[in-house]
Amino acid sequence: MNIQSIEPQAEPLSHTWVSVVGARPQFVKLAPICRAIERHNAQIGEIPIDHRIIHTGQHYDRDMAELLFEQMALPLPDFNLAVGSSSQGSQLARMIQRMEPILKADRIAWVLVYGDTNSTLAGALLAARLKIPLAHIEAGCRSFDLGQPEEQNRIVSDHLSQLLLAPSAAAMQNLCREGIGGENDPQKRVSLMVGDVMYDALLQHLTLAEKRTEPKLKELELKSGEYYLLTLHRAENTNNRRRLASILKTVMSLDLPVLFPVHPRTKQVLSLAGISLNKKIRAVPPVGFLEMIALEKNARKILTDSGGVQKEAFYLGVPCVTLRDQTEWPETVACGANQVAGTDPDSIREAVRGQNHSDWSKFSVYGDGNTAVRIVDQLLANRPF
Ligand code: UD1
After folding, report:
1. Which of 67, 74, 285, 290 can bridge 209 by disulfide, Cβ–Cβ 3.0-4.6 Å?
2. How many whole angstroms separate alpha carbon 271 and alpha carbon 289?
3. Is the CB of 309 under 6 A from ligand 1?
4. Is the separation of the CB atoms in 102 and 75 below 8 Å?
5. Mean pLDDT of the chain
6. Distances from the Cα of 124 to the Cαs of 21, 133, 146, 369, 383, in angstroms?
7. Is ligand 1 within 6 A of the CB of residue 150?
8. What confidence tens digit (pLDDT) does each residue in 252-279 have?
9. Atom 13 of ligand 1 has which residue's CA nearest to it?
10. In terms of Cα–Cα distance, which of 255, 337, 276 is closest to 304?
11. What is the distance between the terminal CA atoms of the chain, rounded to a whole angstrom?
12. HSE of 250, CA atoms in CB hemisphere, 13 A
C-alpha cells in the first residue's frame, strides 16, 4: 500500500520519524511506540529508525511530565519547546512557531501525532503545511460535540493525515463516514484498525504498578475496594463553575471516601471559584502513571471525565462512571463497563449505586496489547519516501 498524495522524491529513503507530544496522556501513548522502535532497531539487518521526540511543553509540572518520562523509561525529548500555558491561540501559535525550524531542518519520513490535544493539532497542521507525511495515532475517535477543543483537534488532525491508525472498529466507521481512507478517498489516505496503544502501555507497566499498590494505599490510608477514584479536568466541566461545584457536591455525598488526584487546571479553577471540599474527598496532587494504575485497579468504581481513564478502567475490570454527556469510547458502554452519567446529580448517584450488568473481560475491542508493533510495521510498510 503506497501513499500517493505525497510527491515521490528521488533522494534515498529517510528513516527519521518525529513524534510530537506535549500533554500527559501523550507520554503514555509514546512509551509503547518507543519500545516497538527499540525492538525494530535491535533486529539485525533492519535499517534503524532515527526516532526524535519533540515535547511541546504544554504540560511542564514535574508530576505532569518529567515523572512520566522517568516511570516509563522514555528517552529524553530531543527538543523541548517550553510553550507552557497561555490562551488557546497563543499556546498553539508558540508550538507551531517553535516547531517549524525543527521540522524544516531534516528530511523526515513521518511526523507522528497522538490523540487529541493542542500539541496534536499543532504537529498535524505544521506537518501538513510543510508537506511532511503525517500519521495520527488514535485516529477516528469522535464525541460528536464540536464545541470541545479535543473534538476539533481530532477532526483536523485526521483530515490532514496520510496514515490513520484507529483504535477500534467504531473509530474506523467514523473515518469512513467522513470519507477518509478506503478506495474512494480522493486524497488516498490510508486508514487502519490497529488497536489502542494505551492498552499496550498498561500491560507493559502493570507489574511495576502492582508493586506500588500496598505502599500507596497505606500512604493514603485507603483500603482496596473501599474508595472511589475521581478525576476531573476537561474544559467542559472545569470552565463552568456551577457545573464543577455540582459534580463535586454530588461526589461528596457518596457512601465511600473519594480519592481525587487534582489536575492543575482543576486546582486553579477550584481556588479561583472558592469551591471547598469536605472530608469525604481526599484531594492529592497528580500521581505518576504507575501509582495511577495501582489506584485505578483497587478502586470500587472510577468517576472520570478523561478518555484514557475510561479505557484503563475497562482494561482493569473496574466499573466506570463517565462525568460527561458523551464518550469517544462507546464500546466500553456497550459492554457494560462504563456508564455515561453526564453531570446531573441523580444520574451520577444512580450510576455509582447501580450494578454493572456484565463481565466485560471477554471483550477485546481495542486490540491485543501489541498495537505499537503493528503501528511501527505499518509506518514502515506505508513509507512514502
Ligand atoms: C490537555 C488536553 C486534554 C487532555 C489533558 C490531559 C487540550 C486542548 N487539552 O488539557 O485533552 O485530556 O491535557 O491532562 O490540549 N497546567 C499546569 N501545569 C502543567 C500543565 C497545565 O499548571 O503542567 C495548568 C495551567 O494553568 C493551564 C491549565 O493547567 O492553563 C490547562 O492546561 P492545558 O494546556 O490547557 O491542558 P489541559 O487542561 O491539561
Report:
1. 290
2. 25
3. no
4. no
5. 94
6. 11, 10, 18, 26, 17
7. yes
8. 999 999 999 999 999 999 999 999 999 9
9. 23
10. 337
11. 13
12. 23
- 332-352: average pLDDT: 95
62 CB-near residues (< 8 Å, 6+ apart): none
Residue 190 CA to residue 181 CA, distance in Å, equals 5
pLDDT(237) > 80: yes
Residue with cell 497528580: 286
Name the strands in the sheet holding 134-137, side by side, starting at the edge strand that comes first in the sequence: 79-80, 50-55, 16-21, 110-114, 134-137, 163-166, 190-193
- Return the pLDDT at 13: 73
Residues 6+ away with beta carbon under 8 Å from 349: 250, 253, 254
∠ CA 263-267-268, nearest 5°, is 120
According to the model, what pLDDT value does residue 345 have? 97
- Three-state secondary-structure class, residue 20: strand
C-alpha grid cell, residue 97 = 512557531
Ligand 1 pocket check: which of 64, 114, 117, 287 to mutate, most ligand atoms within 8 Å of Cβ? 117
pLDDT at 1 over 50: no
Active site residue 357: no
Q: What is the pLDDT of residue 385?
A: 55
- Say what the pLDDT of residue 55 is: 98
Q: Is the CB of 117 under 6 A from ligand 1?
A: yes
How far, CA to CA in Å, does 288 sit from each of 62, 153, 271, 349?
10, 26, 23, 28
- E strands, the chain, are 16-21, 50-55, 79-80, 110-114, 134-137, 163-166, 190-193, 228-231, 258-261, 281-284, 301-304, 320-322, 338-340
Cell 465511600 appears where?
A: 256
DSSP per residue, 214-232: HHHHHHTT--TTS-EEEE-
Pocket mutation for ligand 1, best pick of 24, 30, 85, 289 (most atoms within 8 Å of C-beta): 85
Q: Please say if the pLDDT value at position 238 is more than 50.
A: yes
Grid cell 446529580 is found at 345
SS3 341: coil
**Which one-letter amino acid corresponds to residue 307?**
G
pLDDT digits (tens, 9 = 90+) for 9-36: 456 677 999 999 999 999 999 999 999 9
Q: How far apart are CA 100 and CA 97, in angstroms?
A: 6
State the residue for C-alpha cell 501525532.
113
Mutate to test the pocket of ligand 1, among 58, 265, 268, 272 (most ligand atoms within 8 A of CB): 265
Residue 332 alpha carbon to ligand 1 centre in Å: 25
Q: Ligand 1, atom 19: nearest CA belongs to which residue?
A: 59
